[in-house]
Amino acid sequence: MKGRWAGRALLGVPTVFLLALFVLPLLSMVVLSFWRTENYHIVQDWNLGNYITLATGGAYVTFLIRSLVMAGVVSLVCILIAWPVSYAIILYGGRYRLLLTLAFAVPFLTGEVLRVIALQGLLGPVGLINAVLMALGSAPLRFIMYTNVASAIGLVYLYLPIVVTVIYLSLLNFDARLIDAAKIFGASPLRAFVEVTWPLNLFGTLIGFVLCFIPCLSATLVPRFLGGANGTLYGMAMAQQFGESGTWALGAAMGVVLFLTSIIAVLLVGMRVDLRRTGFTGFGRG
Amino acid sequence: MKPHEPISAGVSQDTPDSTPRAGLSVGRRTVLKTIAAGAVASLAAPYIRPASAAPTQLRALMWEGYLLPDVIAAFEEKHGVTFSPTFFDGNSEAYNKLRVGGTKDFDLVQADGFWPSLYFREKLIRTVDYAKIPATQHLFPVFKPAEFKLLTDATTGSDFGVPFCWGSYGTTYNADVVPAEKAASIELLFDPAYAGRLSTSARFEENIALAGILVATRMGTIDKPRPNGKPFNPYDLTDEELAGVEKLLIEQKPLLLTRYQDNATLAQLLESGAIVAAPEFAQTYRLLLAKKAKGEIDTTFAHTLVPKEGGLGWVDTWLVSSGVPDGATLDVCQSFIDTMITPETMKKVALASGCSTTIDIRALSTPEEQALYLMDRTGELSKMYMFDQPSSTEKWERVWSRMQAA
């Protein structure tokens, strides 16, 4: 009896939390997306106008495509960097493994705004990189000054620690004796990696990918401070609707589209993976 | 309850067979109720105050640049209140905050241009009494209610705001690179000769309005009768003019290094030579001039207050939220405004924020400061188009988004 109540309480608290802070705001966003605004006033007039504007306006589709490409590229780059880093920590970190992984989280001790502004100082025309180049008599690197490349660098900088941590945790739980077994049976180190290490850590890698991809898709600060005149991404355009332009209903519709896009992206990634082969045990052994 | 009525719990004292115990007995529920009521009352007491009671907190929705910690601290000590500021960037952001219940959350509000009159029409702010704000006597004549009509209700003649700082959205430029005659026109900001060395702010309203003045000048519609029968207002553009603005802003994109987000970034970009011109509120210009005077930089910077086609201007004001009732809270609000606009405080505000003041502080300023802070150029305000609400935020948002996506 006591156990049943404890179970209910333990499940109930997060359920209430999710309902109050996730489901209800999301529902209110959906409702708002079917209304309209008129000069900073919300008009409760049910219509599909916002979705029609998003579909036919062109600009918003461009923002979404830009963001999808940006999020995809940044997530891939993060995975490419995070894998060797995490692998090296596991192999050579010794008793400092945890410390080395935690070191990646140090930037999180400061706020996101501060980190982005610091990066603006680093990449900008008077930043450290270009200042050194100019002092050496070289031309400044214009492609890192207020461009989409600068935004991509900023996003990699922001989300790499998350991906490293996730892949590190995946590798930490991976039984390295399987590699030895593969080698004993004649597999080369590369083949052992491709056929044993990689697939058995694919689920962790995908989690890292998704945890990077989703926030990149809605990134606001990075494109605003680093992206320049051609760097407007979907999240930044969406934030604009809730800020100075006051077109909240259109912003809500953009939010709904972003939510659905994120879910579709996650499903697309998930559907291409045989979770059982990745060592994910949530579905049982089958 | 009648006065002196004895409190009995459950049994009347008149009852003949009532025992002393019964007369004094207090039920468990009563005790619990009393404790609960007491706890609720003690918890709620700080928040339940009669409207006439002196406030303990003064909440302001304001621009961060105008916060003077020493002045605020002295005011808090004198009036026994805590000053709680909330900062905003653009007028539309503050307007949104006020509209969604902000009148109950803020006592003092700041706005500029035509925004205070919009606030007043929508009952977001209330009237103020200039007699309770004696420092208003130091306002430059052009900002006194007799001449400055933007803060007076035409119907009742009541004042609903107090002017604070003023300025234009002029062009700061590197005078070593850009000739003065080029800088005298808005065309400078769209000149391919300076490709990659220009910047504008990220504010969508002012970008569109400034481009609107140029487009209307080019189209010849700026002096022609308007569809609404009113004089030209860059915040109320026709569809043809908006189409022209969109085209112009798209053409401008490759010429911009970036759209700056804050004055510190703009100052860095100008100082380093990365850009040679940008529209701004002259705050960065004054900062750079001060650096030049100290010998920290060699570049000469100049500022065009009003371009020849016409420019945008603003007068920042102090307003009192409609959530403030008559009485002690209103008195404290007006006293705060009075403190903020005394000549001594305004001098500090000018130096800290780099803004021109609506209060005459010439007696406290050097001739250089008088020139730098445009103290003898307040008359030029009449040539500027005041910051205003876009005629259709939806249309303007589409223009801005299409430009960003192009």
UniProtKB/TrEMBL annotation, chain A:
Keywords: Cell membrane, Membrane, Transmembrane, Transmembrane helix, Transport. InterPro entries: MetI-like, MetI-like_sf. The keyword Transmembrane helix applies. GO terms for biological process: transmembrane transport. The chain crosses the membrane at residues 12-35, 47-65, 71-92, 143-169, 200-226, 246-269. CDD domains: TM_PBP2. The keyword Transmembrane applies. PROSITE patterns: ABC_TM1. Signal peptide: none annotated. Residues 64-269 form the ABC transmembrane type-1 domain. It is a multi-pass membrane protein. Belongs to the binding-protein-dependent transport system permease family. CysTW subfamily. This is Spermidine/putrescine transport system permease protein/putrescine transport system permease protein.
TrEMBL record, chain B:
PROSITE patterns: TAT. InterPro entries: SBP, Sperm_putr-bd, TAT_signal. The keyword Transport applies. Keywords: Periplasm, Signal, Transport. It is found in: Periplasm. Residues 1-23 are annotated as: Disordered. GO terms for cellular component: periplasmic space. Pfam families: SBP_bac_8 (PF13416). The keyword Metal-binding does not apply. GO terms for biological process: polyamine transport. Its main location: periplasm. One of its GO terms (molecular function) is polyamine binding. This is Spermidine/putrescine-binding protein. It comes from Ancylobacter aquaticus. The lineage of its organism: Bacteria, Pseudomonadati, Pseudomonadota, Alphaproteobacteria, Hyphomicrobiales.
